Amino acid sequence: MMKRKATNLLRMLCTVLLCHLMASPLLANGDEYVIKNGERTLYGVLSKPPYQGKRQGIVILAHGFAGTHHFGYRYFDALNALGYQAYAFDFPYGSPFSTLEKNTMNMSVLDQQADLEAVVEHFRKQEQVDPKKIVVLGESQGGLVAALTAASIGKKISKLVLVYPAFCIPYHWRAKYPNLSDIQDTTRLWRVPMGRRYFEEIHSMDAFESAKKYKKPVLIVHGDADNVVPLADSERVVKMYKNARLHVIPDAGHGFNDEQFAKMVGWLNEFLSE
């Protein structure tokens, strides 16, 4: 029963995120911006508010499973209005819809963490960016990756925003593959193929425990009708952070409509303005 539940939840996760991708705007108020992390190339779009002669904060946006940088366009105007730059990028191998690296057989949560860390480090060195105002925002699997990144390099991240973060991914896949020997060479989730490495790396991962390492402010937003990522996980992890708040949106699922998104942006504005 647990294996069937895990598979169904993760299939629904992929379905929702693919639909969200297709609904994302195709154009954004920004410029193409590519960052190299070793042999991996991170394609993204950088949106900036008018330069006022002083360094600006930046919000780095991490997409979810099978998503792309397009999801971040929705945030650009609100963040620019607060004086923040916004950078949304594709995790290499994170989606068959990625601009560059599309081979999802190479998808890896730990590679995504390393790439997000590289993005943070890159912008810390940019002349127009205030290194004391670097914020990371992640949705779903991107929320998991953002949380892992904050736990790893917390001193370099001023604030963390998690939107229906998928802390459930490790324990759901352990339910499907209780032993490492159970993992298949290829696992397809809603026609998206993934290799053994993805599952081997997260098999013993305790994302909740790692969350304790990040001591700075955290904003978590979750819907109470999310049947993909349990609200209970956000209710659990908010207690593990030293300085965190959780806002719950009534009747919101895994992905917010315009009204729900506007409500979340209101909380985001308050959080970044503090």
State the main characteristics:
274 residues; alpha/beta; eight-stranded mixed beta sheet; two-stranded antiparallel ribbon; 9 helices
What does this molecule look like?
By secondary structure, the chain is α/β, with parallel strands linked by helices. The chain has a single domain (2-273), classed as Alpha/Beta hydrolase fold, catalytic domain (Rossmann fold), CATH 3.40.50. The chain is 38% helix and 23% strand. Strands 1-2-4-3-5-6-9-10 form an 8-stranded mixed beta sheet, sandwiched between helices. A two-stranded antiparallel sheet has the order 7-8. β5, α4 (141-153) and β6 form a beta-alpha-beta unit. The model is unreliable at 5-25 (pLDDT under 50).
The chain-level mean pLDDT equals 92
Name of the CATH superfamily: Alpha/Beta hydrolase fold, catalytic domain
Low-confidence spans: pLDDT under 50, at least 5 residues? 5-25
CATH top level is Alpha Beta
Number of strands: 10
Number of spatially distinct domains: 1
Distance between the termini: 45 Å
CATH topology: Rossmann fold
Q: Structural class of the helices, strands and pairings? A: alpha/beta
Largest sheet: 8 strands, mixed
Neighbour order of strands in the largest sheet:
1-2-4-3-5-6-9-10
Number of helices: 9
Helix content: 25-40%
Assembly state of the chains shown: single chain
Q: Please indicate the percent range of residues in DSSP E strands (runs of 2 or more).
A: 15-25%
Backbone shape = globular
Task: Supply Rg.
Answer: 17 Å
What is the name of the CATH architecture? 3-Layer(aba) Sandwich
